[in-house]
Recover the amino acids of this structure.
């Protein structure tokens, strides 16, 4: 069972931020199709017999170094969108594997140094009455998406699937022949149901994924404001590789 709250304290964060106005769109995919796109020794997690891939647009808010308060004027706030799946390491530690990270802030491209697949793009998040519109494009003629959702009622008691699809506490990346792990800590997501009013996207196909075999499962969150991203460190070698 995935932990609803953070699995570890990030006592010495490398960055602090808020993740706001976040929508989670998840589809089930054949496990073997997703596993083929994930590097060894990571293994794709399954739920209800499927691998799950998420499209998650949001606003990265008040990005700052540790010790800088969130109320300082001029802190960067910008849209970001990721396409990811859920994996575990042979150590048993689960986390995220990102197929792509679209971002409207060039500062985040520095994370390519540990293999995070950031790509610059034109991204937008707009409230329109009771709906939220997200859109983005990866350069001229690149992969793109358009998503309009209508948030629904708050989820007072998240189900096991709600938590499994939204709560992970580390990310894995690969660079220079090494697997890296980045821990994260924040308060539990305040989740709500959501309905899709419009969805067009080519990000999953651009990642090499086939068509999903089920309808999307959608959640919305106003977000979490106390995100602590830890220092990225190489994963220890597995027994098979040592």
């Amino acid at each position: 069972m995935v932990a609803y709250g953070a699995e570890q304290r990030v006592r010495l964060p490398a960055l602090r931020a808020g993740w706001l106005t976040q929508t989670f769109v998840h589809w089930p995919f054949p496990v073997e199709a997703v596993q083929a796109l994930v590097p060894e020794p990571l293994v794709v997690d399954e739920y209800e017999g499927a691998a799950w891939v998420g499209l998650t647009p949001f606003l990265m808010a008040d990005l700052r170094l540790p010790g800088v308060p969130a109320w300082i004027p001029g802190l960067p706030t910008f849209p970001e969108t990721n396409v990811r799946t859920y994996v575990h390491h042979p150590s048993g530690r689960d986390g995220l594997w990102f197929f792509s990270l679209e971002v409207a802030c060039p500062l985040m491209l520095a994370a390519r140094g540990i293999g995070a697949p950031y790509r610059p793009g034109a991204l937008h998040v707009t409230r329109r009455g009771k709906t939220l519109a997200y859109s983005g494009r990866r350069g001229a003629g690149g992969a793109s998406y358009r998503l309009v959702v209508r948030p629904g009622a708050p989820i007072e008691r998240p189900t096991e699937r709600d938590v499994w699809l939204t709560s992970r506490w580390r990310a894995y990346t690969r660079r220079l022949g090494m697997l890296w792990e980045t821990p994260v800590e924040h308060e539990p997501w305040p989740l709500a149901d959501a309905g899709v009013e419009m969805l067009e996207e080519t990000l999953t196909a651009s990642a090499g994924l086939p068509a999903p075999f089920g309808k999307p499962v959608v959640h919305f969150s106003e977000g979490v404001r106390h995100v602590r991203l830890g220092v990225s460190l190489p994963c220890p070698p597995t027994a098979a590789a040592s």
In short: The CA atoms of residues 44 and 87 lie 4 Å apart. The domain at 15-227 is CATH 2.40.400.10 (Acetoacetate decarboxylase-like). The mean pLDDT is 94. The first strand starts at residue 15 and ends at 29.
